Predict the 3D structure of the following.
Amino acid sequence: MRTIIPTLIFLLLTTNIPAQVTDSNLKISHLTGDFYVFTTFNLYKGSRIPANGMYLVTDKGVILFDTPWDTTQFQPLLDSIKVKHNKNVILSFATHFHEDRTGGLEYYKQQGIKTYTTKQTDELSKERGKKRAEFLIDKDTVFTVGQYSFQTYYPGHGHAPDNIIIWFEKEKILYGGCLIKSTDDTDLGNLSDANVNDYATTIKNVQGKCKKPKHIIPGHGSWASTRSLQHTLEMAEQLHQQKH
């Protein structure tokens, strides 16, 4: 039984299906090619809310974009990736300082994973007592890992003062984090660190940078629609009008 059970687990995890639930607290979904979305959950204002991160499988290893919101899922995510792809996570990027993005940075650093945020995110993380990365990005930067390249881009203050997006220009994949809202959302969500006046301009900057994305991953909720960027802009413009 010792050899049969791991084999069964391996077969279940490597079955090619659109969404893979490893347990009730961690969901891994295939996006396209070597791109996957992982979703964990936490309580916000009494409701169980999903939070999306993304990972990319490269020839050199796996890259995480944001960390699990649920602290119990830091290691299960690494384990699931190892079983599914037979590769280790080598890099981890957080897109702003909130806990649903940075929570696992120090844990992953302890596992030998190189962790990155912008300098602005690090300053806010230090000020607010959040987890911090080992390496800092001081400007928009293109990274090449294995066969893939992507750019970190700061479009301006929106959801948070430091929110960045990740743009895969060749694949036309936009990882938006919490700056971008799902088309299922009816408002901009947590505005405690947001800039209502600049939000719409910041989204327009993303639209100018990321032309015709084929996939857009918001920080929370469904990524099925590529209208999420325009949807976020419309809500930001409406909110701005309401405030003035």
About this structure: The first helix runs from residue 4 to 14. The mean pLDDT is 92. Helices lie at 4-14, 74-85, 99-102, 105-110, 119-128, 199-209, 228-243. The chain has one domain: 19-243.
